[in-house]
Write the structure tokens for this entry.
Amino acid sequence: MRFYILTLLSILFIHVSAQDLVLIHTNDIHSHLNGFSPEAEYTPFLKDDDPTLGGFARIAGFIKQEKLKNEDKLLVLDAGDFLMGTLFHTIEPKYGFQLNLMHEIGYDYVAIGNHEFDYGLEKLTAIIKNNQEIGDIPQLLLSNKIKNESEAIIEFNKFYDNKTILPFDLIEKNGKTIGIFSLMGVDAQESIPSIYQLEFENVVKSARKTAKYLRKQGADLVIALSHTGVLKSKKGEWRGEDYKIGKAINDIDLIISGHSHSELTTPLQAGNTMVVQTGEYGQKVGKIEVFFGVSGEPVFQYTLIPMNDQIEADQSIQKKINQQVEIVQKDLLDQFNIPFNETIFETNFDLTKHEQNPAESNLGPFVADAIYHTVYKVDPEGLDVALVASGVIRNNIKQGEYGKQNISDIFNIIPLGRGLDSIPGSPIGKFYTTGYEFKRVLELILAVVPKHPNYYLYFSGLEIDYNPNKRIFKKISDIRIGNHQKGFKSINFSKKDTQLISVAANVYMIGFIEKLTKMSMGLVKVHPKDKQGNLTTAEASLIDIKPDQKGMQETKEWFVVYNYLKSFIDLDGNQIPDIPELYKNTKNPLFKIE
């Protein structure tokens, strides 16, 4: 049996022996090339108690120092979702940049995560090729391959032929053989937009087969870069897919986990396997020192290092990032007349997303209000309700030292998705539904939220009374639509009532609602409709933010947040809008009735 808990003997061994290997690792960077937040306070070359964390210049500086100490022992790894999350990702399909930069920083292996597929397989293929045209990129890994076939998948699989992507690799470092592979977990697969219809090989079977093969090839250390994740159980224990994989497969020594954005301050022991994860966005970097005793068993010493103001940042890397800012400005922001570095708004308090307890978020209701505000203004037919799912809200608004925020801080709140045009971001649509159908949808989502917090819905124009202790479809006792100016009015839940309610949401949520009948095995039968009551689709429901202009100008989620912030009053006379104090303690209007 392989033991990894640091016993007294192993501790003594560590203190008298130099480490055999050093592993530096990250996960879920999501294109956060600059530190945050607020991004305006990121000053990587000044030791000025800058409160921000992260930034590729700091990560590069940290890796550079580690290489000076451990050149022949060092391996730098990322567990996936390196793309999608900031303004920088918006120009990757056209130009490429980040993978090339990661190679220059020192990354050896990078796993492919679900968000790499957000723009579709064709765009991911273009991103990789664009980066290769610039220069070298890290070795990409994806072990449980895409099973189904299409022209785009065949083209993508050519990366396996030319070894741009490998299912696994064996590498020699300091006299030790390291076997390394990557995994795309079940939840990660389900998070890829369903329109792409990607099917992957079974993650557990792939892990077991690959780890066993690497061990037979003489690997002293088997590492899985697992974009699969760990989460806390109701009892407060870390569990999840990576925990189950570690428990089930003896041949994996170390799982460097990703996808769940979990920060493990101490390693998670899963059977014979140690599991680690750094959190998100490069705010912290993991360092694992590996020692091999007389028996040949690896022993790990794990540290999380904050990428803060004390890190000696790499100026050449930041210079290249600043050049990308100019491209983002020209390619995207100029068409909206938004300067990259200009202060857009300010706040004297934080707005937070609360991933594990989304009902406590004050940021979710704020984003829902932003959608309601813009759609209500631009759509001549008005709006009843705006919805946004917790899972699409990615970043908090942090006050920082001065409270001033730029467009990056806005975009980073809700940065994902794409529409039919060239502008990045999820477009918003409007559909109609009956009170009966609407209640059934809300009941179903309330039932699954305890296990899937990302499905939690924030809403504007709506109030709900519910009893969480009652059975499904009996939890909600009242739904009221309206606003604080005109008041709220209860809707009719009767199946016979045909009066329609208008609902605004992003097209992915509308598409999800379209599929609920099948997903719920007929428990919920709901079909998005147009204002006449005819069936409609997510694409047909798109809202034109400039209806007086020719063609369709899609209403993007990130832009409605920008638009809402610009509508606020300047409270202190400095010509910068301030977030109203009421949002400091605003919660979702979901009232528990016992």
